[in-house]
Amino acid sequence: MIRVNLLPHRQIRRELRQREFGLMAAFFAIAAAAIIFLGWTYINSRVDAQAERNARLDTAIVQLDKEIADIKDLKDQISTMLERKQVVENLQINRSQAVVVFDELSRILPEGMYLKSIKQQANVITIEGIADTNARVATLVRSLSNSSWLQSPDLVEIKAITINNLKQNAFTLKASLQPPKLEPKTALNAAPKTSAQGVN
User: Fold this and answer.
1) Is-contact 149 175, C-beta < 8 A?
2) Is residue 120 part of a domain?
3) How many domains does the structure of the chain reveal?
């Protein structure tokens, strides 16, 4: 009877399978390492890109904050300049009003009367003066009623006094300062012309 020893053949096949398994395991290990490396590289690239984007955003935010601060400073400067402009305009208006009011009073002041003081508080003007008769005071009140700058006259007080052995009447009246609805230039130009005529 012929006997065949199959042990070497099985051992060879087992070694071949082990070699194939080892190769496949090494291949899968290399493939897994490559996939992990590629994934890690991709994630790092995305993280770096996002970090760069965040850095650009931070720089832009800082620049915008600086521009906003500059705009705020400009607004404050503009507000300050507008306030100064308003103060200067008010001074110019008040100065022209004073000239016009004095000119207006000099026009409507009756004879036999002179003024002691003129005070202005806001838009209210207080006039104190001396008149030789009550009729002069009444004439002044009527003239103020027809004035284009001084309106709503109110006689506060009138009393008899003696000056240099002459009977006089001391009076106090108030009037509202209300400029006519004209441009300031018109009012300013009107006063010099009139005064110039008076000189001639």
Assistant:
1) no
2) yes
3) 1
Of all helices (H) and strands (E), which one includes residue 163? strand 150-163
Parent domain of 162: 89-180
| Residue 102, domain member (yes or no) | yes
Strand ranges of the sheet holding 166-177, from the earlier edge strand across to the other edge: 113-121, 124-131, 166-177, 150-163
Paired tokens of 80: 């300050």
Q: What is the pLDDT of residues 86-133, one digit of tens each?
A: 888 777 766 677 777 888 888 888 888 888 888 888 788 899 999 988
Q: Which two tokens stand for residue 127?
A: 């006039």
Whether 59 maps to a domain, the answer reads no
Query: CATH number of the domain that 151 lies in?
Result: 3.30.1360.100
From CA 170, how far away is CA 159, in angstroms rounded? Answer: 5
Report yes or no on whether pTM surpasses 0.70. Answer: no
Judged by phi (left if over 0) then psi (alpha if -120 to 50, else beta), residue 124 lies in: beta
128-182 tens-digit pLDDT: 999 988 898 899 888 888 887 788 888 888 888 888 888 899 999 998 887 665 4
In a domain, 80, yes or no: no
Q: What is the secondary structure of 165-199 as a DSSP string?
A: TEEEEEEEEEEEE---SS-HHHHHHHHHHHHHHHH
3 state SS of 64: helix
